Amino acid sequence: MYKIETEAKGLVSHGVNACAGCGLELVFRTVIRALGEDTIVIIPPGCAALFSGIDNVTNIKIAGYQCNLENTAASAAGVRAGLDAQGNTHTTVLAFAGDGATADIGLQSLSGMMERGDRILYVCYDNEAYMNTGIQGSGASPYGAGTTTTPAGKPTYKKDLLKIAIAHHIPYAAACSAANLPDLEKKVKKAKDAKGPAFLHVHTPCPTGWAYPPGKSVEVCRMAIETGAWVLYEYENGRITVNRKIKELRPINDYLCLQGRFKHMTKADMEILQNETSCRYSELLASEG
Question: Which of 88, 119, 244, 257 is most enclosed, with most CB atoms within 10 A?
Answer without folding.
Answer: 119
